[in-house]
Amino acid sequence: PQVSISGQFNHFINIPVSVVDATLFSPLAQPGETLEFRMGTDYSTNGTLSVNQLLFNGSYIIGLQAIKHVYRFQESSFLVTKEDVVFNVIQAYQLAAIAKENLAFTDSMVLVTEALVNKQQNYFDLGLIVQEDMDQLQFSLQTARNAQVSADIQYQNTLNILKYSMGLPMNEGIETIDGTAFLLGKKSLSEGDIHNNLQYALMEQNIVLSTMNVKNNQFANLPSLNAFFTHSYNAYRNEFNFFANEKWYPQTVWGIQLNVPVFSGLQRHARTSQAKIQKLQNETKLEQMERTLQLQEIQLKNNLRGAQNKYALQAESIRLAESIYKNAVEAEQIGKGNSLTVTQKHNQVIVAQAQYLGSLIEVFQAQLALDKLYNELIQNQ
User: Which residues constitute the domain of residue 50?
Assistant: First the structure.
C-alpha cells in the first residue's frame, strides 16, 4: 500500500460568494430574484492521512515479472564489458610474453656472437685472419646488439600496455611469469557452443523484454482496481488561533475505484502493434546473429588450425636456422669457415625468428578470438 500524510493551510483574502434563488429562503421573494451571501471562514486548515492499495493492474503485474529479466539484461551487459577488459588484458599479456621470449633470443645471439668475435680477435692478432673477416664479424655483433636494444624496448612497451589494460599505475613494476610455451600448452583447438556467446545471450534477453513489452501493452486494456482510505481533521477559524482549544472536525472515508479503459483513440492498439513489430525485429536479429556466429566459428577454427600448422613449421625452421648458425660459428672458430658465411647464417636466424614470432602471434590471436566467441574468457576466470 501507498501511505501519505499531508497538511494544508488556507487564508481566504476574499471569501467565495454563493448566489442562490431567493425563493429558497423567502416565499415572498419575486421570481428571478437572487440572494448573495458569503459561506466560509477567513482561515482553514486540515491534516490528512491517505492509504491507497492497488488491487489489480495488468501492467503492474507484467512490470513485476519484467524486473528479473531487466536484471538479467543488465548483468549480461556488464559481462560483455568485463569480457572486453579480460580480452584486452590476455592479449596484452600474450604480446608481453612473446616480447620477453624475443628478448631472451636476442640476448643469446649477442652472447654467441660476442664469444665468436673475442675468439677470432685472437686469431686476428696472430695474423691468421684478415681485417675484412673481423669487420664482418663486428658488423654481425652490432646487428645483434641493435636487435637486442629493439627487443628490450619492445618488451618494456608491451609491459606498459599490459599495465594500462589492467588499470595499474605506469610507475608500478610488473613482470610476466608464464612464458609462451605455458600459454600454448593450456589449450588446443577449442570446442564450444556459440549459444554461450555473450552478445547472443544479450540479444536473447532483449527478445524476452520485447515479449514483456507486448504483454504490457495488451494488459493495459484490462480494468484496474484500487482501494483507498482517507482520514482527515479540518479546522475553520475567523482568527488565526488554530493552536487554541477549539473544535476540529474529523472526516473518514474509504472506497474502491474501478477504471475500465473504453476507447483511447486507437493509441493502445498502435502501441501494441509497434511492440509486436519490435519483437519480430529482435527475433530476426537473433537469427542473423546466430548465422553470423556460425560463420565466425568456421572461420576462426580454420584460422587457428592454419596458425598452428604454420607455427609448427616456423618452430622447426628456427630450430634449423639456429643449428646451421651454430655450425657456421664452430666452423669459423676452427678455421674451416669464413665470416661472410657466419653473417649470412646470422641473418637467416633473424628472419626465421621474426617469422616464428609472427606465427606465434597468429596462434594466440586465433585462440583468443575463438575463446571470446564461446564465452570462455569469463568462465575461466
Answer: 2-56+224-259
